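Lecture notes, unit on protein representations.

Consider one protein chain, 171 amino acids long.
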Amino acid sequence: MKAWKTLSSEEAYKTPWIRVRRDEIENHLGKPLTYSVVEIHHPSVFIIAINDKKEIFLQKNYRYTIDQTIWELPAGHSDGQDAVEAAQRELVEETGLESDDWINLGKVYQAVGVANFPLSVLVARNVRSSRIEVTEDIEQITESGFFPMSKVEQMIKNGDIISATDIGALY
């Protein structure tokens, strides 16, 4: 089978967080196609924060892109850091929680048909309140709390948790 070939690539748009490029390609059948690809500058981290009761921490956050407030896992950008270091920072910044017990479940990708958005899924066990004040002011987090997995599953069924990335991380 013939390999896909990039004929040309140009940057269409760039911010400090993402880049959009337009690629003219030839697929494995020799057919010319145009791809618009969204790339993230630094991988994201998604954190499954679990307390000593085995409950999962979720936060309710407004998401402009879908104009909805939804329950989700704490997450953020790595800023070029190691995934565990970035997750530790994000957990404290967004939630005021910390943990000494981390497991990196590995890297997955979001929206692979149109984007190169890698993210690492990490588990923080035995989370506790930190002495550091929550500094995240960009997000609009309206509620947060720990929930047993049975409640999390009910929230998914009810449409309260709708992010495919969060659901994939949880399972």
